[in-house]
Design goal:
heterodimer, A: 185 residues, alpha/beta, Glutaredoxin, seven-stranded mixed beta sheet, 5 helices, 7 strands, B: 173 residues, mainly alpha, globular
């Protein structure tokens, strides 16, 4: 047999071995990640002190929950319902700010995809990008559109999907805040 | 006629070139994490980190291009200097801080281990062996393809050295 054919057959076999090794390691790592996957956060437990980076800004925000009540929102560009929530969230921002509630949209998606998804309907300065591992610590089930309400002590007060009873209660509370301030004045 | 030293030198050349390429690609895929790790683990200022991170990636790409291209010897020397420097720095941090993240091949989520340092030492030995054997032009294409394939296996083993060492060292049952 031609020597070149033997070399090429051996090369194909060697490439196949390399691919097999790579895929086997990938499967093992995926299995380990699944076993070590973080469990969903429970109400009343402290939220892990993860750090994030605001889109278009250089510095890290550490921790994300920074000594004040905070609403962490989870929206994904791949979730059909999420785009429909943006207008509501943007309307909510000024009232939340007046009430001393920090609102952050949390994502692990690339900045360019977030810009395209948000399309100016939600301020990028209120978007924090986390690495995938930290994101999973906050949102283990990758739920969206979802939220976490965290109090000023960094303890989880409520969690659920945007639009559920807790969410509607918060929205009503924020809507009433200006009226109550007016009455007080 | 290809001799065993020529063939081994060719395997080492592809091994070093592909390894540098894999390192650069892994850093580019997790570029933000790599830049942040320079600050967190190595105390590089944020501004310097912004300059150093792309510089490291570019240096690795350039060395890979030299090794896989026509300037093999300068490329191997550059690779030897880079791996030597990185390993010395990592070894120092590992010794003084115990917990340090490397992100050399994209494994930034776990801390640096002794296996990673051993891997780097083996890579340095491989580069030195490649330099000692020298590069001989005129390796036939079919032999070069086989050398590249064998080097690819070595690259996969090297990149996942820690995982494989842990896996093989784990008691069964």
């Amino acid at each position: 047999m031609d020597e070149r054919i033997i070399y090429l057959v051996l090369a194909v076999l060697a490439f196949a071995v390399a691919l097999n090794l790579k895929l086997t390691i990938a499967v093992l790592q995926a299995g380990r990640r699944e076993r070590n996957a973080p469990s969903p956060l429970l109400v009343g437990e402290p939220v892990p002190p993860v750090s994030g980076r605001a889109v278009g800004q250089r510095g890290l925000r550490w921790p994300v929950t920074d000594g004040q009540p905070v609403a962490l929102l989870f929206l994904s560009s791949r979730c059909p319902k999420c785009a429909g929530k943006l207008a509501e969230l943007e309307r909510l921002l000024p009232a939340a700010q007046r009430a001393g509630l920090a609102v952050w949209l949390i994502s692990h998606e690339p900045a360019w995809r977030l810009r395209r998804f948000l399309g100016g309907r939600f301020p990028l300065s209120r978007v924090l990008r986390l690495n995938r591992r930290d994101y999973q610590l906050l949102n283990a089930t990758a739920a969206s559109p979802a939220y976490l309400f965290v109090n000023d002590a960094g303890v989880l007060e409520a969690t659920g999907l945007i639009g559920d009873d807790n969410w509607l209660a918060l929205r009503a509370q924020l809507s009433d805040a200006p009226a109550m301030e007016d009455q007080a004045a | 006629m290809i001799t065993p030293p020529m063939f081994i030198a060719e395997i080492l050349r592809y091994f070093v070139g592909l390894l540098l390429l894999a390192a650069a690609v892994a850093k580019l895929r997790g570029f933000d994490g790599f830049r942040a790790n320079l600050t967190e683990s190595f105390g590089v200022g944020a501004a310097y980190g912004g300059l150093l991170a792309p510089a490291v990636v570019l240096a690795e790409l350039a060395a890979a291009a030299l090794v896989l291209g026509a300037a093999v010897r300068p490329g191997m020397w550059a690779a030897l200097c880079m791996f030597g420097l990185f390993t010395a720095l990592l070894g120092y941090k590992f010794y003084t801080q115990s917990v340090v993240r490397c992100g050399c091949f994209g494994e930034a989520e776990r801390a640096l281990s002794g296996f990673d340092l051993l891997r780097n030492a083996l890579v340095i030995a491989a580069i030195a062996a490649g330099l000692a054997l020298g590069h001989t032009a005129g390796v036939p294409p079919h032999a070069a393809i086989l050398a590249a394939a064998l080097a690819t296996i070595a690259c996969v083993v090297t990149i996942h050295f820690h995982e494989l060492a842990v896996l093989l060292g784990r008691p069964h049952g």
